[in-house]
Amino acid sequence: IYIGRCIGVPGDTLFIDSLFSVISPEVQFNPDKKRLYAYPVDKENLITLLMHTLSIDDDGLMGSSDSTHVRSFSRYEYYLLEQAINGNNWIQPLAGKKDTELRPLIVPGKGKFVRVHPWNITLLRNTLVMHEGKQAEIKNDTLYVDGKPTQHCYFTKDYYWVGANNTINLTDSRLFGFVPQDHLIGKASLVWFSKEKDTGLFDGYRWNRFFRTVK
Length: 215
Description:
Mean pLDDT: 85
Structural class: alpha+beta
Strand content: 25-35%
GO molecular function: serine-type endopeptidase activity
Radius of gyration: 21 Å
Number of domains: 2
GO biological process, one term: signal peptide processing
């Protein structure tokens, strides 16, 4: 069972990047958007202590090597950490593309056609096979449905695009694609329990999140 925010409903056109993250002018420059940062392995205990002191949620390691660990922080969280280490600069943002090419992604609806593009062909093929009961395959960059090449896909169900709050961990539609309506089982309304990972029986509780309504 996954909990996520509904980002797209049937018929919506979303703008996505190469990782199928939904981008909008509001989201693209959102200071709460998570980015990847690297730091020396021997600073792990200090990072963990600072995160706890600054009330920064621990999303876990996003990567590691013999000398480096990688975590995700928002710009504000990174600012707090920089201030705490007095600007010593051993936490470094990972280099990435400054300009992201966006592509339109139409969320399928019941009785609707969706045009096939290079950036959605695999997603449409998977949806047809898993949820529409069709025989679909990609050959020479062309989508074949029930043995016939097609440039438009017809859908018999309503679908949704859901997103997790964490923009790095892919536990949302970036991982499992369009979600058919018959897979939606309810709506989260209340956080009744919240605890940090890898903490003991008597610590790590996020008391300020207990019994908070989900907005």
